[in-house]
Amino acid sequence: MANRDLAIGMIFLTQTVVGILGNLSLLCHYIILYFTEYRLRSTDLILRHLIVANVSSLFCKGVPQTMAAFGWKHFLSDVGCKLVFFLHRVGRGVSIGSICVLSVFQVITISHRNSRWADLKVKAPNYIVPCIFLVWILQVLVNISFPIFITDKLSDKNITNRKDFLYCSSVRHDKLTDLLHAALLSVPDVFCLGVMLWASSTMVFILYRHRQRVQHLHRTKISPSSSPESRATKTILLLMSTFAYFYALSSIFQVFLSVLNNPDWFLVNITAIMAVCFPTVFPFLLKNGDSSVSRLCFAWIRNIKIP
Question: How many CB atoms lie within 10 A of CB 228?
């Protein structure tokens, strides 16, 4: 085994183990809350779907990439390859969509009582379930092409033009078809990233204005950086900026992977590493934002009474 394969294998193994354990611990936490709490927050449902999507991405991308890096490259059947690629793409898309729904829901919740979002404050929790299921359905439809074009490396089908993805392969098309396919896959990502950036900016602006309005009420001995507004703002920026950074890079590498006829070893592996970065660090971002995990930044901002 080459040193580069060993190094990549260790990276994938670390990402996969740490990410899966972290997300499963959060999922267990929310399951316990479901059976013990009298009233759950509306955001808990979004976070549970986000955790499930993260685990799906880690299992379907991290585990096969780890095995391939350590020398096992023919362990999946044709059906297995189709299922692994499809579930990873759906999980990745649902992760993006869930963060997008969460950010919009937070903007509505902390908005000014006299703003255009005021009427939605009461109704917003009722829209969460339809929005989450819409995200799942949309991602299934967008990524339905993966089971069609992905095959195992030992398939007996009469396909001579293939792209090698280490443990699976895909049918190679002409440049225009690959470019259109990459654009189709990128449209939901770009839209969600744009909405998240808008929502994050709006939340920071609202919290900043509120902090300026109530600054004279804070005791002078309390540091401004310890106020609820500051903690909420920092957590929002940390979560959204980390998410946008990793998924923007992942989307860029994915486009190159889709367009190139013969993606090299480095591009295939760096694309996979970027794809599982956010699912790996997500549990720790959540814990960093709230030591009790269950509140996140939303618990800080939901108690802010914005007149």
Answer: 16
- For residue 179, what are the contacts with CB-CB under 8 A and spacing of at least 6? 258, 259
Please tell me what DSSP assigns to residue 60. Answer: I
Instruction: Indicate the pLDDT class of residue 151, thresholds 50, 70 and 90.
Output: confident
Reported in sequence order, the residue ranges of the chain that DSSP labels E, i.e. its strands, are 150-152, 162-164, 168-171
Separation of alpha carbons 165 and 288, rounded Å = 35
Are 82 and 147 within 8 A, CB to CB? yes
Cα 162 vs. chain centroid, distance in angstroms? Answer: 29
pLDDT given for residue 304 in this prediction: 41
Cβ atoms of 94 and 139 closer than 8 Å: yes
Q: How far is it between the farthest Cα atoms of the chain?
A: 76
Q: What three-state secondary structure class fits 153? A: coil
**Three-state SS across 94-105?**
HHHHHHHHHHHH
* Radius of gyration over every alpha carbon of the chain, rounded to an integer in angstroms: 21
Other CB atoms within a 10 A radius of the CB of residue 72 amount to 13
Q: Band of the pLDDT at 297, cuts 50, 70, 90? A: very low
Gap between the Cα atoms of 19 and 64, Å rounded: 15
Residue the block writes with tokens 């040193």: 3
Question: Given its phi and psi angles, is residue 260 left (phi above 0), alpha (psi -120 to 50 degrees) or beta?
Answer: beta
Residue with tokens 């995990």: 293
Q: Which amino acid is at 118?
A: A
| Pairwise CA distance, residues 292 & 218, whole Å | 25
DSSP string, 215-272: GGGS-TTS-GGGSHHHHHHHHHHHHHHHHHHHHHHHHHHHHHHHH-SS--HHHHHHHH
Q: What's the rounded Cα separation, in Å, for the pair 78 and 152?
A: 5
Q: pTM, whole model, 2 decimals?
A: 0.80
